[in-house]
Amino acid sequence: MVYFLLVISFIINGIIIFALFTLFTRVKRTEEIELRRNEVAREIEDLFSSYLLEIKEENKRLETNLSRQDKNGFTRENREQKRESYLPPHPSQENRRYEPSPHSRVIKLHKEGETVDDIAKQLNLGITETELIIKFHQKK
Asked: pTM for the full model?
């Protein structure tokens, strides 16, 4: 009977040691995962901070360029006056020529039965560009 209890005690102790070892390895894994997450978070923060610094430097350069332009006689008031007083040029009667856009020419030639390759060669466009124009027009 003593041997039986001794064997059961060893078995229970073995199971407990195995369970403790398993728990220990799982805790180590979770700690490693947490460390990796912290490292990734730090890397992302560093990346964002470097991007922000670059953006700040670009903004400073833009400000200095704008202030140089203002020193050259262009003030905000002058710019606004120029915008208000601007009138677009009127087309003369001689320059009134209608030229269809490349998109409409592609569609017209396609409706006439031309192949995509022929259309691209005639209009000096890429084949892929021509195919996309035709596909987008067909979806409408």
From this structure: 0.38
Give the span between the Cα atoms of 11 and 104, in whole angstroms: 86
**What is the rounded CA–CA span in Å between residue 109 and residue 115?**
8
Per-residue pLDDT tens listing for the chain (140 residues): 888 999 999 999 999 999 999 999 999 999 999 999 999 999 999 999 988 999 999 999 888 887 776 555 555 555 555 566 767 766 665 566 778 888 999 999 999 999 999 999 999 988 888 998 998 888 65
Q: What is the token pair recorded at 108?
A: 């017209």
CA distances for 69 relative to 10, 59, 65, 83, angstroms = 88, 15, 6, 17
What is the residue extent of each domain of the chain?
14-84, 100-139
What whole-number distance in Å separates Cα of residue 33 and Cα of residue 31? Answer: 5
CB 100 within 8 A of CB 108: yes
Distance CA 33, CA 4 (A): 44
CA distance 92 to 101: 21
**What's the CA gap between 104 and 131, in Å, rounded?**
13
